[in-house]
Amino acid sequence: MDDALGRLIAAGNVAEIFELGARVVKLYRRPAWKPAAFREAAVHAAVEDLGVPVPAVWGTRQFGARWGVVFDRIEGVSFAARMRADPGAVPGYLDALARLQARIHEYPADRLPGLKARLAANIRKAALLDEARRRGLLAGLAGMPEGERLCHGDFHPGNVLGEMPRPVVIDWPDAARGDPAADHCRSHLLLQLYAEDLAEPYLETCCRAAHLRPDAVLAWLPYVAAARLAEEIPGELGRLRELARPPRPEAASLN
After folding, report:
1. How far apart are alpha carbons 32 and 198 in whole angstroms?
2. Band of residue 255 on the pLDDT scale cut at 50, 70, 90
3. Alpha carbon distance 237, 240 (integer Å)
4. What is the pLDDT of residues 59-112, one digit of tens each?
5. Which of 86, 137, 178, 219 could form a disulfide with 147 if both were Cys (CB 3.0 to 4.6 A apart)?
6. What is the 3-state secondary structure (H, E, C) of the chain?
7. Would the CATH topology of 8-72 be identical to that of 79-251?
8. Cα–Cα distance, 253 to 55 (Å, whole number)
């Protein structure tokens, strides 16, 4: 395998994706994120072992002071790019995404950390939450379903590559064991933030595909939004603070 980094393919808040010979490397931006690279490789390997359609992972690599995870390269553009290029095909892509996310949730996730524990940890870290709101959110979260299914944790059209009949799902560092409704809620939140016109159509489509009630998905919204605050992404914080409000006591535990 070629040891030299190739061209930059994509960039995010946490990492950049570079060509690496016939493969790619997801290179974390900060040297201190070495543990995150190793965790991502381990989580991805566990997901791959389940038989989920993901690129093969080949381990971690160091480039200068930075660490990254090496994956098979997947040819083809994302569903997000396809939807932008052909607005008339959007309903079909939303349906394919919803069915794919529902299939992911069919897998057990015994080897992965719990989603509720991760949400709680991020709510505790969110600096923009005052203590009273934080306590209310944590109390409400405690009453939500645990769940035992595989949750991607960041499922959106930009993380699905390839053709509609054989999609491949990338970017699994937030994979966890939890309630599928919480995973759908995270997707709904991301669409609210970045493609608001698709948020409600996708919610309706994924609820049909997964046989869920919309209110069961939206019950997770305060907790998912509050946990997202810990990521401190500019441009999102005001909207997230509006959504991160503890529910009324009678609505705090919705199954």
Report:
1. 36
2. very low
3. 5
4. 999 999 999 999 999 988 999 999 999 999 999 999 999 999 999 999 999 999
5. 178
6. CCCCCCCEEEECCCEEEEEECCEEEEEECCHHHHHHHHHHHHHHHHHHHHCCCCCCEEEEEEECCEEEEEEECCCCCEHHHHHHHCHHHHHHHHHHHHHHHHHHCCCECCCCCEHHHHHHHHHHHCCCCCHHHHHHHHHHHHCCCCCCEEECCCCCHHHEECCCCCCEECCCCCCEEECHHHHHHHHHHHHHHHCHHHHHHHHHHHHHHHCCCHHHHHCCHHHHHHHHHCCCCCCCHHHHHHHCCCCCHHHCCCC
7. no
8. 37
**What span, in angstroms and rounded, lies between the C-alpha atoms of 37 and 163?**
28
Query: Where in the chain are the domains?
Result: 8-72, 79-251
Cβ-in-10-Å burial (0-12, 13-18, 19+) of 88 comes to exposed
Give the number of other Cβ atoms within 10 Å of residue 252's Cβ.
Answer: 18
* The two three-digit tokens of residue 214, written as one number: 């919309």
Structure tokens at 62: 């160091």
Q: In CATH, what class is 8-72?
A: alpha beta
Does the domain at 79-251 match CATH 3.90.1200.10? Answer given as yes
Identify the pLDDT of residue 192. Answer: 98
Length of the chain: 255
Q: Which of 51, 172, 164, 170 is nearest to 103 (CA)?
A: 51
Q: Which two tokens stand for residue 189?
A: 């939140």
pLDDT at 3: 77
Q: Which of 97, 103, 122, 251 is nearest to 174 (CA)?
A: 122
